Amino acid sequence: MSLVADPGVRRARAWLSRAFEPGSVDVWRFVERTGPVAAVQSLLRGSAPAEVQALAGRRAGADLSEEDLHRADRCGGRLVVPEDDEWPAVALHCLTLTAHDLPTVRREQPDRTAALVPPVALWVRGDRPLDELVDRSVALVGSRASTAYGEHVAAELAHGLGQQGWTTVSGGAFGIDAAAHRGSLSAGAATVAVLACGIDRAYPSAHSTLFTRVLDDGLLVSEWPPGCAPLQHRFLVRNRLIAALTRGTVVVEAAARSGAQATANRARDLGKSVMVVPGPVTSAMSVGCHELLRARDADRHAVLVTSAAQVLQEVGRLGEDLATPAERPGSPRDSLSDIARRVLDACPVRIGVPPERLAAVAGCEVVDVLRVLPVLELHDLVEWTGTGWRVRREPPAGRLAP
Amino acid sequence: MSLVADPGVRRARAWLSRAFEPGSVDVWRFVERTGPVAAVQSLLRGSAPAEVQALAGRRAGADLSEEDLHRADRCGGRLVVPEDDEWPAVALHCLTLTAHDLPTVRREQPDRTAALVPPVALWVRGDRPLDELVDRSVALVGSRASTAYGEHVAAELAHGLGQQGWTTVSGGAFGIDAAAHRGSLSAGAATVAVLACGIDRAYPSAHSTLFTRVLDDGLLVSEWPPGCAPLQHRFLVRNRLIAALTRGTVVVEAAARSGAQATANRARDLGKSVMVVPGPVTSAMSVGCHELLRARDADRHAVLVTSAAQVLQEVGRLGEDLATPAERPGSPRDSLSDIARRVLDACPVRIGVPPERLAAVAGCEVVDVLRVLPVLELHDLVEWTGTGWRVRREPPAGRLAP
């Protein structure tokens, strides 16, 4: 039987998720220290530490937690809290580590959109358990203004990952996000869309059908309670969750200084793999990708990937999921000695010539020519015309100029 | 006055360049030890070390050196030898270092096509001094079966390098080689084509017009005497020269296991910069490029480049030629505090709302809202309707969803 949190704890975390914009290390530390129920009680009394009380502001006055839980329930959703077995504790552990390292003085703390702090709870819509779905998952992120190339590659990667039983995690936006979900769905695999609005909202509305398909076998996830609007700053805060929930982040197309680059940097800061798909250098939508690949900060740098197999090589467990390097069919030439190659190149195409002539052209002794001719003949590379040696008229495949 | 080698030395090196296929460390060491004139004398007498005598084979019987020098002269060429001032000693010093490190036992030596050994002499056609032209030069190499994308990028890079006074060095093949020469010529810059045949031969013959244009302000260079055929193994031997003569090698398009990859590996082994232009992962002609970028051997790895400025950043002298990172025009949002961004996102588009409402939506105190509203108004991001605050109808450029 799986562990399910106390209803009071769940309601307290629902209250906290509405009272505070996520990403505040002060709020997270306060809740960690006092526990969610006591934290809510002191906030309602107005007796919480001043900096935390101020962050809730007017929102501390109202209690919509019961209503929010009902709204989630009505759309087939639920609130998953750290006290649940379903909480993706392994994946999110990285955020706990980074949050502990953040400065205690407010002025020295990073901007809330960049602070690597765990969520107080996650609103989840869909039937599958969150922790199972993200255990073997990869984030696929990129531009909304993607090109046909980027969408093709995103769909191919997600499809390939899905075929190997890996979950694709992305946002819910147009472009790369949507292509990634579609590619994964086409492989019959689960996908997770991490939203910057309530799980009961379809944003953008053109994606309501896509979200319905995601829900068939996957999840919609959000830090914000039902009904919340996709405000701009929320996307930036949300990006750290996409990076944290997965084993690694793949950037497919990104303009210069884009949100996808920000997600990649979060993944790097969380110690997760950062993978980047290159593109034409003539495409503005690959500029951000190429900047990531050019950045050489210390030993942690982004890895270029071109296939799902290469993605799995980065994030897969040791011994499984190994990519084979790109190959070209071998040529019989490859196995030849230097002298044999020179003699072969010295052979004319039409008229056969004697070994003495081959030795002069190849720059070696006649005895060497006589030594290598049988090898060349064995490989069907040369033939005896009756009067001399020449290149075989129909050489096997692979015999091309270098 | 520049130093010009003794006619006897030049003739001896002309003889050596016909007697031996380049790339043999034994031959190079023998010539280094005894000097070119004495080396030729002992080879003609048959008294050279057995391994060297055997490499010359039948070729040691004839002396075409005078004829070769005449043939070069007739096509406007010359033989440049290490004893000349024009010899690119600085660039080729790397080959001297690697040749010294090669094993003395023949069996342990690398294949001649891979051995990093200096040339005994260079046949050069064109008016400009070789050492001057290659002092600030970059190799641009890639596939013969290039795509329109690859040719466009090769021409753009060569053009950009040419505009900054840099010489492009390449082979004479179809595809990327030709596009690189054309791009450089279009900038009125010098190019150097390093051939795998005699400098009096146009190979491929369709490039005879291109080579004529190269000769207007650049050079054709070869290790092989006039009349020599472009035998297949010679291209592989030639590749080390392209890598050695330049400050760095840029691979534009390369199939898996291609000659361009081999040139890049030579450049790496010689301690020169290796730069790679990425391309669509869907293109077979970029597979070799992406493999180079994925290879992570020790700390020496290929650098992704997308522009001539980035190439110059790698090979240029310190303080000159610095590339600026890709940029996006800054948005007024970027400079806002967290609270200001939240208040801005809380502002409705049409109807103005009072600060109390903004505080509730943004999740902060009313006093914070009143503090940041003047900043937002100053940035033309919000406006007062007479009854409340709303987003300014025509926001300045850069205000886009993340």
From TrEMBL, chains A, B:
GO biological process, one term: DNA-mediated transformation
Species of the source: Modestobacter italicus (strain DSM 44449 / CECT 9708 / BC 501)
Segments forming domain Smf/DprA SLOG: 117-314
InterPro entries xrefs: DprA, DrpA_SLOG
Gene3D superfamilies: 3.40.50.450
Family of the protein in this entry: Belongs to the DprA/Smf family.
Protein name as annotated: DNA protecting protein DprA
Top-level taxon: Bacteria
SUPFAM superfamilies: MCP/YpsA-like (SSF102405)
